[in-house]
Amino acid sequence: MNTIDPSYYLKNQPAAGSTNSSLGKDDFLKILMAQIQNQNPLDPMKDKEFISQMTQFSNLEQMTNMSQSMEQFLETQSLPPLIQYSSLIGKEVTYPLINEETGIEERQEKGVVTSVVQKDGNTSLELNSGLKLPVNQITSVSETGEESSGE
After folding, report:
1. What is the C-alpha to C-alpha distance for residues 101 and 65, in angstroms, rounded to an integer?
2. What percentage of the chain exceeds 90 in pLDDT?
3. Tell me, what is an example of a GO biological process annotation in this record (predicted)?
4. Is the dihedral of CA 58, 61, 66, 67 positive or negative?
5. What is the pLDDT of residues 59-103, one digit of tens each?
6. What is the DSSP string of the chain?
7. Which residues, including other chains, have CB under 8 Å from residue 76's CB and lie 6 or more apart?
8. What is the tens place of the pLDDT at every residue in 34-54?
9. Domain range 82-143, CATH architecture
């Protein structure tokens, strides 16, 4: 006589609302295997039903893979791209100089961007003075040292 796997008992299932309510591919396989093991030998599962269920499993697996790929894509898009700020190389940027003791802006400083650095998801600009400036502190960008001569 066939025995039922104890993990399928309701008392062994997680409490409602404690986990994701959608079934994953592992859950689908468990249900399919339980169905195959417990089928009536005089009336086995029809080929069409089995193929249909395997197709559903294949679709579920593809959707799961697509979901994971989309999550990875969104993760990479949430970081400020290095290429976006590379156009600032050679440009003059203005940024506030803040007094560390008072936290008050003392004046605006300028510097020419020599490189763009991305570390731990944070993008900063390296200026010709050696200062590394986070991109969110830039107040303006202009061409280097070119004053309008009125020509």
Report:
1. 52
2. 19
3. bacterial-type flagellum organization
4. positive
5. 888 898 999 999 888 877 765 567 788 889 999 999 998 888 888
6. -----GGGSGGGSPPTTSS-SS--HHHHHHHHHHHHHTS-TTSPPPHHHHHHHHHHHHHHHHHHHHHHHHHHHHHHHHSPPHHHHHTTTT-EEEEEEE-TTT--EEEEEEEEEEEEEEETTEEEEEETTS-EEEGGG--EEE-SS------
7. none
8. 877 777 777 766 667 777 877
9. Roll (2.30)
Segments making up each domain of the chain, as ranges: 82-143
Both tokens of residue 128? 């010709």
CA 122 to chain centre: 15
In the numeric block, which tokens belong to residue 111? 């510097």
Distances (CA, A) of 101 to 95, 104, 105: 18, 8, 11
Separation of alpha carbons 115 and 121, rounded Å? 16
